[in-house]
Amino acid sequence: MGNKEQYIPAAKYSILTDLFDPFMKYIMREEKFKNELLDEAKIQKRDTVLDFGCGTGTLSIMVKDKVMDTIVHGVDIDPKVLKIAKNKIDNKGLSIDLKEFDGINLPYENNVFDKVISSLVFHHLVREQKVKMLKELYRVTKQGGEIHIADFGKPQNLTMRAGFFIIQLFDGFNNTKDNLIGTIPSFMEHVGYKNVKEVQRVMTILGTISIYSGTKF
Ligand SMILES: C[S@@+](CC[C@H](N)C(=O)[O-])C[C@H]1O[C@@H](n2cnc3c(N)ncnc32)[C@H](O)[C@@H]1O
């Protein structure tokens, strides 16, 4: 791909990408917060779902495991994680459409997704990218469709704050500052989503993961 936006790989350094799945499973309690996210999303049979920043495909696969009769699309900026996702999806014999993204225009028409889901992507984006990506996600969400985001949120105590400091040291301070002060919901509202709420919080060793939901009317 030609003009691609700069991005932070799943495990910050490309060389660590293969360690991302064990890290998510054993350190980040991914099963817990991804299941909470999917419980909030209430994905129905025949829903068309977009997993934004799908990484190695775990969340997309969980959607199919829960409701087989769905049309699931995963999009990510990093071809290396998409390759891992494709292998996992093929090994399970599932059908999930994966696309590489240039970081600017999502490769989908307007108003196509019933549910947009995303896990741990927004803390990789600086404020301007967060808003731009949300605008793009709003564009591709159907009227009446929903967005459900799981990402680091405002820590609810000092232990969570200390955990999140480690993430900031590793992933960067500029791209994580809005997570820390909990402003992602205001960006969701800014691009047009309504009924925006923090619906869940999950404590992890590396900080609070908040689940934010909103609807496009
Ligand atoms: C921490 S990983 C999370 C992956 C996956 N969603 C999960 O929860 O297992 C963050 C992902 O966001 C992707 N990413 C970073 N910037 C992006 C952007 N601008 N557009 C789409 N994906 C992006 C990275 O390539 C990486 O796969």
From TrEMBL:
InterPro entries: Methyltransf_25 (IPR041698), SAM-dependent_MTases_sf (IPR029063). Residues 49-145 form the Methyltransferase domain. It comes from the Bacteria. Keywords: Methyltransferase, Transferase. The keyword Ion transport does not apply. GO terms for molecular function: methyltransferase activity. SUPFAM superfamilies: S-adenosyl-L-methionine-dependent methyltransferases. One of its GO terms (biological process) is methylation. PANTHER family: METHYLTRANSFERASE. This is Methyltransferase domain-containing protein. It comes from Geosporobacter subterraneus DSM 17957.
